TrEMBL record:
Lineage: Bacteria, Pseudomonadati, Pseudomonadota, Alphaproteobacteria, Rhodospirillales
Protein name as catalogued: Putative 4-hydroxy-4-methyl-2-oxoglutarate aldolase
Domain of life of the native organism: Bacteria
Names of required cofactors: a divalent metal cation
SUPFAM superfamilies documented for this protein: RraA-like
Organism: Dongia sedimenti
Family annotation (PANTHER family): 4-HYDROXY-4-METHYL-2-OXOGLUTARATE ALDOLASE 3-RELATED
InterPro entries linked: RraA/RraA-like, RraA/RraA-like_sf
């Protein structure tokens, strides 16, 4: 039996606190902390209107090499590592796959996706493709991919090499257990250790943005209200007191 490691999942309260914060806000907040590009380039939303926050289960693909990989070895399905990353899935987990940007290998299809959703998985992120689009779309499972293909996962030039190891996905390093924040803007990787500070800063930002948005739609000066100028802080605080639920 193939053995693959599980991940350490972040505290539930961190996940819950991040659910009201969008990928753009998380990316911008991390940017101010020195993370220049926590956003994956390549995987894009396949079913718009979805947003997820959850810990990363990782799957790494490598280029096929005949001395390291032979498809004949896959006669036993349990040797297929792309199955094993799904075995670890718990409610709210996100599978993140480094498929090397390959556009001709379908990492998962209908049945694998159905199993993952049945396990309570939150969503799938792949720097590459999936297959069985008509049936997968019926699952309404949040997906961020480069595209779709009719080919199966090892049909062309890559093969799964490791589960729950550090990977690069869309040009971003992903450590197993990192928090994935994804919506229509894209996918952002948030290190667990940075989450409390990101939550704190993002909540402050979100609060004054509500006020600024009200002022801007009224035609108020952009220079004063975005970003909120120090000279407008007293006005903002007065608005907060009169709108405590906003």
């Amino acid at each position: 039996m193939t053995h693959t490691p599980d991940i350490t999942r972040p505290p539930r309260e961190l996940i819950d606190a991040l659910k009201g914060i969008g990928a753009a806000t998380v990316a911008g907040t991390l940017g101010h902390m020195g993370f220049r590009s926590p956003h994956m380039v390549g995987p894009v939303a396949q079913n718009h209107g979805k947003s997820i926050v959850g810990p990363a289960l990782t799957l790494q693909f490598l280029p096929q090499r005949p001395d390291l990989f032979n498809e004949g070895e896959y006669a036993d399905p349990e040797t297929q590592l792309h199955r094993h990353v799904l075995y670890h899935a718990q409610e709210g987990d996100v599978v993140v796959v480094d498929a090397r940007g390959d556009m001709s290998s379908g990492v998962f299809g209908d049945m694998m996706s159905t199993y993952f959703k049945g396990r309570g998985g939150a969503g799938i992120v792949i720097d590459g493709c999936m297959r069985d689009r008509p049936n997968v779309e019926k699952l309404d499972l949040p997906l961020w991919l480069r595209g779709w293909t009719p080919n199966y996962h090892v049909q062309t030039g890559i093969y799964p090499n490791a589960v729950n190891v550090p990977i690069a996905c869309g040009g971003v390093t992903v450590i197993p257990g990192d928090i994935i924040v994804a919506d229509d803007d894209g996918v952002v990787v948030l290190p667990v250790a940075m989450a409390p500070q990101v939550i704190e800063e993002a909540q402050k930002h979100a609060e004054w943005e509500v006020f600024s948005r009200i002022k801007l739609i009224e035609g108020a000066p952009l220079q004063r209200y975005y970003p909120l100028h120090p000279s407008a802080f007293d006005e903002y605080e007065a608005w907060r007191k009169s709108n405590p639920k906003s």
